[in-house]
Amino acid sequence: MGMRRAAVRVTKSALERLGFEVYRPTAFNRILAAQHERSERFFFVQVGANDGVSWDDLYGFATTHPCGGLLFEPVPTYYARLCANYADYPDIVPIQLALHKTQTEATIYRVDPNRLDEVPSWAEGIASLDPNHHLGSGVPSDVIIEEPVRCAPLMQVLDEHKVSHVDLLQIDVEGYDAEVVRMVDFDVLKPAIIKYEHQALSDEDQAQLRELLGTHGYRVFAMGNDTVAVQPDVHVPDLTPPRRRLRRTAASRR
């Protein structure tokens, strides 16, 4: 067993030097792959994109499958990294905006970039419009700073970019997810797949979203900390864990 583990480590290291990694496709990525096969032009909208790579496996899919998309990230530091990470993919467009139904400017609360060494690495991904969101993660208030960001309503921005079809709407906005889902005008646009993070939502918000999505014909189910909703014609493949596969690493694709 020890020799086998050593051989696995050596093989993994060799593949990484060549710019490859072994991975097991997630259940959600298999849903995306099935939708990509049936879509004439796969298009996605990601709200709360951060830098596009950290804490997010959508980058791996978006950069290995032909597609277009809009990426929303209001924080200037993260937005700059997002632009750099997607620079080679002109059909995927970063937008420096937060989404809000009525306001044109809001305050976002995030970890002071000068104090990142005082908190876990994941704390850089908890920027939120909720001033108390960090408390649920155990991040101390004295490392949180306020930063003004520009806002616009979701449907307004989609209309400005002439978006008439969305295969995936992915939302991860640290406790504000319910408000973004409620911004969707389902009479105008019905994303084939909607994914949002539910772990920071109240039980009431979660129940209301499930009812809202069910009313518009979505099948709704949980995947870890996320909720996934799919239109009836979206194929949900066998979710049994598949065999591992080989792909290029994110670093080698940038």
What report would you give on this structure?
The protein has helices at 2-17, 27-38, 58-62, 76-85, 154-160, 177-182, 203-215, 250-253, and strands at 20-23, 43-47, 68-72, 92-95, 98-99, 105-111, 144-152, 168-171, 193-197, 219-223, 226-230, 245-248. By secondary structure, it is of the alpha/beta class. It has a domain at 20-99 and 163-233 and 243-253: Vaccinia Virus protein VP39 (Rossmann fold, 3-Layer(aba) Sandwich). A seven-stranded mixed β-sheet has the order 4-3-2-8-9-11-10. The radius of gyration is 19 Å and the shape is globular.
Could you report the average pLDDT, rounded to the nearest whole number? 88
Largest sheet: 7 strands, mixed
CATH level 4 superfamily of one domain: Vaccinia Virus protein VP39
Strand order of the largest sheet: 4-3-2-8-9-11-10
Q: How much of the polypeptide forms β-strand, as a percent range?
A: 15-25%
Which H/E pattern describes the elements? HEHEHEHEEEEHEHEHEEEH
Could you tell me how far the N terminus lies from the C terminus, measured between alpha carbons in angstroms? 36 Å
* Shape estimate: globular
The CATH topology of one domain turns out to be Rossmann fold
CATH class of one domain: Alpha Beta
**Considering DSSP H and I runs of 4 or more, what fraction of the residues is helical?**
25-40%
Q: Report the radius of gyration as a whole number of Å.
A: 19 Å
